[in-house]
Amino acid sequence: MKNENGLKYFSLSVIWIWLIIFALLPFLLVSIVSFLSHDENHLIRLPFTLAHYIDLNNAIYLKIFEKSFYLAGLCTIICLILGYPFAYAIARMENHFKSLFILLIIIPFWTSSLIRTYSMITILKPKGIINSVLLWLGIIDKPLALLYSDIAVVIGLIYNLLPFMVLPLLTNIERLDNRLLDAARDLGANRFTTFRKITLPLTMPGIISGSILVFLPAMTIFYIPDLLGGSKSILLGNLIQNQFLVTQNWPLGSAISIVFTLLLGFLLFIYWRTMRGKEHGNLI
Amino acid sequence: MSQNIIELREVSKSIHGHDVLYNINLEVRNGEFLTLLGPSGCGKTTLLRLISGFEQPTTGKIFINGKDVAGLAPHLRHAHTVFQSYALFPHMNVVENVAFGLRCQKLPKKEIDERVAEVLKIVKLEKYALRKPEQLSGGQQQRVAIARAVVNRPLVLLLDEPLSSLDYRLRKTMQIELKQLQRKLGITFIFVTHDQEEALSMSDRVVVMQEGYIEQIGTPRQVYEDPQNLAVAKFIGEANIFDSEIVGMDGKQITVMIQGKQRMVKSTRSFTVGQKVYLLVRPEDLRVWNAEEAGDTSDMLPGVVEEVIYKGTTVDLMVRLTNNKLVAATKFFDEDDDRLEYKIGEPVWTTWSPGWEVVLPHEE
Questions:
Q1: How far is A112 from chain B (nearest CA, A)?
Q2: Which domains does chain B have, with CATH numbers?
Q3: What is the ipTM of this complex?
Q4: What is the pLDDT of residue A165?
Q5: Which of A177, A178, A187 to mutate to test the interface with B (most CBs of B within 10 A)?
Q6: Does residue B20 contact residue B43 with C-beta atoms inside 8 Å?
Q7: Nearest CA-CA partner of A236 in A86, A56, A19, A18
Q8: Torsion of CA B109, B114, B117, B121, to 10 degrees
Q9: Least CA distance to A278: which residue of chain B?
Q10: Do residue A182 and residue B90 have CB atoms under 8 angstroms apart?
Q11: From the CA of B169, how many Å to the nearest CA of chain A?
Q12: Do B89 and A189 touch (CB under 8 A)?
């Protein structure tokens, strides 16, 4: 009994230490840096200032934020529309097919996502696979400008993030009790009503956790807009990255990160408030 | 008007090439409490799903209220199901659960409200109308499940092991409640269970099933006291089974030879001399006497007490007969026999009143 407790405290403290070192500490460092000053000879220096937060109140940043929000939102919705039927179909499969499909979803993770994004270029570029096929089929007569556009960024994001939508949905749909669907049918609900009144509300936790898992990285992955969006496409992720690596303005980059983190925290708080008290809302 | 609310004619079902039900013929009378009883895997749930319309029979016909229901969707059959572990919608409260079927029929709101309120009153859940299923006890959930089915005014209520997830005490209470509810509603109940005690205490008639066949249909009394074969006898209650042989037939008087002793037995079946038979004696019918109590031991079987189990109202004895067969006897405390002190290892005589046995022929 005592040993069991020892193990419990040990594993809990490992998690806490891990979170403190790798999440809380960096976050505190970033928040401190965001209040520091910056000049050409120093990455960061005293005195403390609010200048960078004031700088953020600029139309250009708001626009970037708005656009990132829009693209990430679009990507999330498309992932949901593609992912839901996919997850549903897999969840209802027989066991050995199911493991095969889950394996197929996971296999791409064995290659670095950066490399996979580079390979997207070959598919999307003017003489790439999509354009060649469309030209050959005679559907278009000159190559589409797919690469270095918002479309390319969205395609890249969806390609990279779809599994994060499918996997939570899959676990949620798998847990759905078939008898509930039988019961709805027995009471005269057609397929559409059953889906709307039973399946959808009961898989809402999966939908929400999938959406969060897709939306958050979609806002911040910097290499996808960098590689596929070209110089035109400045999104929040590569804006922050540029502040740190290109213009070397660490305090500004930190300030953007902090504002962004607080905003997402606020969204999660709203989600938590609406889900509170609902037993089935505890998936995340 | 036909008294049969449901008729199954030569229904069989195979799933993935496995035969699950063979040639089922069953007539369910209007208003009765019918139980499908059998061990798990005997096909009783499949039979229920054929009636409810979730499965279609491979061959044969099913009639509900005189109408062939082949291909008819579950909700159009006037037979609603109370599912195992209830399958209540967890995100809806009691009223929403119960109103679900009526809302699917798009009835006017006023009628829905009235009917839901009426049913909740019958199952005594008015006070819990706005609770979620998780906030209800097992017995209350059970009543919601029944209300949700009954509100659609089915002709038949199909109950798939509805009590199996309740604890022993609650199960006993719910058995009585279900039975009272059935009388109050006047609806035919088809009840699936593997618990023979439950089946006997609740049903008007019991259908004993085994490996896809119906072994016997009868009142609880018939299946218990006059089982048609060994399978039924073994499944319903405890039974001591003696191997024996017919040695004499004289009209109704049958003489058998059992462990070297002759006994008179009674049976409505006819046998031939020399035929091998089983004699079936329930533990509560088996008498156990010690050497002083036993008078004429000419037709008694000697043995030794091997185990004494005190159960409060009864004492269960395990007696090892001289041919090494172990038999069980249940003794009740009563005025005639207050000496229920048995010692392990004590030599005893076992017997039973002629006619209290069931004589079954050997099966092929």
A1: 41
A2: 4-235 (3.40.50.300), 240-361 (2.40.50.140)
A3: 0.75
A4: 93
A5: A187
A6: yes
A7: A56
A8: -160
A9: B91
A10: no
A11: 26
A12: no
3-state secondary structure labels for all residues of chain A: CHHHHHHHHHHHHHHHHHHHHHHHHHHHHHHHHHCCECCCCCCCECCCCCHHHHHHCCHHHHHHHHHHHHHHHHHHHHHHHHHHHHHHHHHCCCHHHHHHHHHHHHHHHHCCHHHHHHHHHHHHCCCCHHHHHHHHHCCCCCCCCCCCCHHHHHHHHHHHHHHHHHHHHHHHHHHCCHHHHHHHHHCCCCHHHHHHHHHHHHCHHHHHHHHHHHHHHHHHCCHHHHHHHCCCCCCHHHHHHHHHHCCCCHHHHHHHHHHHHHHHHHHHHHHHHHHCCCHHHCCC
A101-154: pLDDT as tens digits: 888 888 888 888 888 888 888 888 888 888 888 888 888 888 777 788 888 889
DSSP string, B205-267: EEEEEETTEEEEEE-HHHHHHS-SSHHHHHHSS--EEEEEEEEEEETTEEEEEETTEEEEE--
Interface of B with A in 285-314 (CB under 8 A): none
Q: pLDDT tens digit string along A186-244?
A: 898 888 999 999 999 999 889 988 998 899 888 888 888 888 887 666 788 888 888 88
DSSP state of B337: B
B 141-200: CB under 8 A from A: 148-149, 152
Residue B72, chain A, CB below 8 Å: the answer is: no
Q: Mind telling me how many Å the CA of A105 is from chain B's nearest CA?
A: 30
Q: Do A189 and B104 touch (CB under 8 A)?
A: yes
Q: Which candidate from B87, B104, B152 shows the least CB-CB separation from A177?
A: B87
Inter-chain contacts counted by CB atoms under 8 A, chains A and B:
61
CA-wise closest residue to A114 among A2, A223, A269, A3: A223
- How long, in residues, is chain B? 364
Residues of chain B with pLDDT under 50: 1
State whether the Cα torsion A41-A46-A47-A53 is positive or negative: positive
Nearest to A214 by CA among A31, A87, A93, A30: A87
Please, which pLDDT band fits residue A284 given cuts at 50, 70 and 90?
Answer: very low
CATH of A57-281, one of 1.10.3720.10, 1.10.540.10, 2.60.120.10, 3.90.220.20: 1.10.3720.10
Interval A141-176: pLDDT, tens: 887 777 888 888 899 899 989 999 999 999 999 888
The domain limits of chain A are: 57-281
| Phi, psi of B347, deg, nearest 5 | -75, 135
